[in-house]
Design goal:
The complex is a heterodimer of chains A (250) and B (370). Chain A is of the alpha+beta class and 250 residues long. Chain A is built from five helices and ten strands; from the N terminus they run H-E-E-E-H-H-E-E-H-E-E-E-H-E-E. The radius of gyration of chain A is 21 Å and the shape is globular. Chain B is mostly helical and 370 residues long. The chains are: A alpha+beta (250), B mainly alpha (370).
Chain lengths: 250, 370
């Protein structure tokens, strides 16, 4: 009995790891999700903790928002879009059970369309060019249908993400709305960070140091992006990084 | 010679120590008097047994030996934790210099190495505490390494990782008779059942606690399994069948505790957070229904625990009953009752429950003596 249990435990470890490696190989066999060349603004280096030398890039993105420019809900996540993504919006927003109905609804995994808009090279304004150029512009449950809507794989990537719904009865200034409304939020990309293996990470290991991650600090031209990286999204719409190149300074 | 034999020998040595202490007390009270020959024969027999077990199994025959052993266990626990921290921090330091194949190899080997350590420790007949330490380290290793594997390969995550962790814990629990790992494995499998259902319905699987009604089917299965089949515990040597059945009963109790605990927790979350299973019924009534169901379920667990003579089940049911009762009373009375009166009534109810639990304890004691 003990030997059977131990063999089963060992096989479990090997199977789980093997399955993860196989999934990753299958994902990387074909970049079905597209590829984008992003800069350090969209892929900042994650700060090392506990003396770690692991190189991880965070995937930063923005989207067109309602109300608050930084924290507001996505403008394009209308009620119709939320229904299309599978949320149950049948309960009227101004009815008594609406608060609990929408408040208890978990987030949904979806596919997101990402668009990269690089800053204009001929506009030397660091303020105008400081924002992250990766934008989430659309969402859907079928990645092929999303690709048909955004066909250029060099300009639009399809990635996994999470969207949630919220019933709002106050605006961002705390004032009550005339009528409650439904809002949609893009919570995160899945995964929200990308591990960079050797040898691609050799450039990144030379860039470690106290560099602020706060985008507001990018008014200073000294904080122009220092590298570009080509990010691919594979057949499972999971990302990986290749072709990490340094950028010349300003 | 097995670790279970060592455990049985240690338990008997502990019983002999209690027996000698009680014998001295009875002699002082005049309840029992042994002749000098009987006393000498008894002492010689006990010394012979203890000497044999000390040589064979390395048991603690005296109180001072037991205290030293506990000191060794604490030192081992701290030492093991420090060594594991050192290994992890060292890997952090060199991780960026390793290629992906080497990283994946290290991740795969980590839990296997702990598994090997547990088995070698078990075969050397070392105290089962150290076997348990290696087994827990193996479980922690597989949880950490699968999380790290997902990060290295940029995977999007899956609820089946809970199944892997739970199955691994169950294998270790059955291999070495470890109830703590059995409980951890069963709870992970219960969580997996809820997470998978949530994923199938199109939601993010990590929100399974938010949709806690999905945990109830898994909780029912866990509770019912000991009655459907006989889960075997860590099996002992053939010459001690009563201890084998004791281990099996202990495992069955863990199944029921995990099932009841998961079910009661799910009902509590539902009753406090609200659940829109039934659109036309008001949330207040739905919450009340969950709380009353929780109270009845807790009473059922108490009753079943009394019937089985399983005091941990009785304790869990009693704790669940108290929590649900207080939640319901707060919902009924808090708004309109003067606050001093509310707490006065709660205190009186608590005293009433104390009297009930005293009667339950007396019944349990009668069952144990019978």
């Amino acid at each position: 009995m003990r030997v059977v249990c131990l063999i089963t435990a060992a096989v479990t470890v090997l199977l789980a790891n093997g399955l993860g490696i196989w999934q990753s190989s299958r994902n990387r066999a074909e970049p079905a999700g597209g590829s984008l060349e992003l800069t350090e603004r969209e892929l900042p280096l994650q700060r090392a903790e506990l003396e770690s030398t692991a190189t991880v890039l965070l995937l930063k993105w923005q989207t067109e928002r309602v109300g608050n420019e930084r924290w507001g809900p996505a403008k394009w996540l209308t009620s119709d879009k939320l229904v299309e993504l599978g949320f149950d919006c049948s309960v009227p927003v101004d009815s008594p059970p609406a608060r609990r109905h929408y408040g208890s609804m978990p987030a949904r995994p979806v596919f997101l369309a990402l668009e990269y808009q690089p800053p204009h090279a001929d506009v030397p304004n660091p303020v105008a060019n400081r924002h992250c150029g990766l934008r989430v512009i659309d969402a859907g449950r079928d990645p092929q249908a999303l690709r048909r809507l955004h066909p250029d794989p060099k300009r639009f990537a399809i990635a996994r993400g999470v969207v949630r719904i919220q019933r709002r009865d106050h605006d961002f200034d705390g004032q009550p709305l005339a009528r409650p409304e439904l809002a949609g939020w893009v919570d995160s990309l899945l995964p929200s960070q990308i591990s960079v293996p050797r040898p691609a990470n050799q450039l990144l290991t030379t860039l470690r140091g106290p560099r602020p991650q706060d985008p507001d600090s990018e008014d200073d031209p000294a904080h122009a992006p220092r590298y570009t990286a080509r990010v691919y999204w594979g057949s499972r719409y999971e990302p990986w990084v290749e072709e990490l190149k340094p950028l010349r300074g300003p | 010679m097995t670790a279970q034999s060592r455990q049985a020998a240690q338990q008997r040595a502990d019983r002999l120590a209690l027996f000698r202490a009680e014998l001295t007390t009875l002699e002082d009270e005049g309840g029992l008097t042994l002749t000098p020959e009987q006393q000498a024969g008894l002492d010689a027999h006990i010394q012979d047994l203890l000497a044999r077990w000390r040589t064979q199994y390395g048991i603690d025959a005296t109180d001072s030996a037991r205290r030293v052993s506990w000191g060794m266990r604490i030192a081992s626990l701290l030492g093991a934790a420090a060594l594991v921290a050192a290994a992890i921090l060292f890997l952090h330091r060199i991780w960026g210099y390793l290629g992906t194949p080497v990283q994946l190899l290290i991740l795969t080997l980590a839990p296997l190495a702990m598994l090997l350590g547990a088995e070698l420790t078990h075969r050397r007949n070392v105290d089962s505490f150290y076997v348990g330490l290696f087994a827990i380290a193996a479980e922690v290793a597989i949880i950490t390494e699968l999380s790290a594997l997902g990060a290295v390969l940029n995977l999007s995550g899956s609820p089946h990782v809970l199944l892997t962790w739970g199955a691994f814990a169950l294998c270790l629990a059955y291999a070495y008779g470890l109830r703590l790992l059995l409980a951890a494995g069963l709870l992970l499998l219960g969580a997996w059942s809820g997470a998978v259902i949530l994923e199938w319905t199109g939601y993010v699987w990590m929100a399974f606690l938010q949709s806690s009604r999905l945990l109830i089917p898994g909780a029912i299965i866990l509770y019912a399994l000991p009655s459907l089949g006989r889960p075997r515990g860590g099996h002992g040597p053939a010459e001690t069948p009563p201890r084998h059945s004791h281990d099996a009963e202990a495992f069955a109790t863990v199944y029921r505790l995990c099932g009841a605990g998961l079910g009661l927790l799910a009902l509590l979350i539902l009753s406090l957070g609200g659940d829109h299973c039934c659109g036309s019924i008001s949330p207040t009534h739905v919450a009340a229904a969950y709380q009353i169901t929780g109270i009845l379920l807790a009473l059922g667990v108490v009753a079943h625990g009394l019937r089985l003579g399983a005091s941990p089940l009785v304790n869990l049911g009693a704790a669940g009953f108290v929590i649900f009762l207080f939640a319901r009373l707060q919902a009924w009375w808090w708004e309109w009752m003067p606050k001093y009166l509310f707490f006065l009534v709660l205190g009186l109810i608590a005293f009433g429950l104390l009297l009930v639990f005293r009667r339950i304890r007396a019944r349990l004691a009668q069952g144990a003596l019978a």
